[in-house]
Amino acid sequence: MSDRNSVKHNSSSRHHKQSGSNKVLRALTYVLTPFLVFVIVCGTFVLALYAPYSKAHPYLNTIFNRNSVKTQGDSQVSLYHPDDVELQIGEVVIDEGDPEDDGEKTEETHTIIYPYYGDRYGTFTCENAGMIDLPIVAGTRYEVLNYGIGWYNGSVFIGKPGNVVLAGHNNTYFALLFQVKIGDIVEIETDYCKLTYIVTDTVIFNYKDLTYIQPTDGVDRLTCYTCWTNRRLGVSIERYAILCDLVSREWKEVEAAQ
Q1: What DSSP state is assigned to residue 171?
Q2: Are residues 63 and 132 in the same domain?
Q3: Phi, psi of 161 (to 5 degrees)
Q4: How many independent structural domains does the chain possess?
Q5: What pTM, to 2 d.p., does this model score?
């Protein structure tokens, strides 16, 4: 009898232990399941908001004046150098006139202000596309492009003969670049000159193709490009560009050079 009672007692004890373990497991399940669901929902929500936030980030910085570029008079001071740094002023020799008129060109010397990386460099305008006085900054790093259209520092300085290359995000300052049409007038203005171009072509090219951003031999051109997604989601390996020929180059007096 004692053996039988012992077996029953052991069986009952195991049953109670299993029952207790099941209760603990159910309790943990009841507690952890809502928590895990909450974490998954919050994570999904954050990921869903990330893309719109990344697109709106430059505008939010502008609205709330966060990390804004400081201004001094009518010029914008660089993100990277002290406010009191001296301007980099030089001279450029330009062949003016049409050699077909009298058989020769006339060389003229003009003053040019070389920007530091991150400087406010000028403005971009294409009225037909609704792009009016958009800021141009020197450089094309991501954080610099948050403040304007970037001048590619592998191209010629604005005003010098050759290929001036500008780049911008397709969801901020170059969002309307796709509306620029062949025949439209594009103007670039700096503190020392104003350039007027006419759009001659539009192209789509692979980001590894350097054909359109390379220097041009004896051709004054403006190349403006941005990412080309064709309204698809995801990272693009293609670029959309407008190609422009120079119409006129107007020079200004630079007081700092006097």
Answers
A1: T
A2: no
A3: -65, 140
A4: 2
A5: 0.67
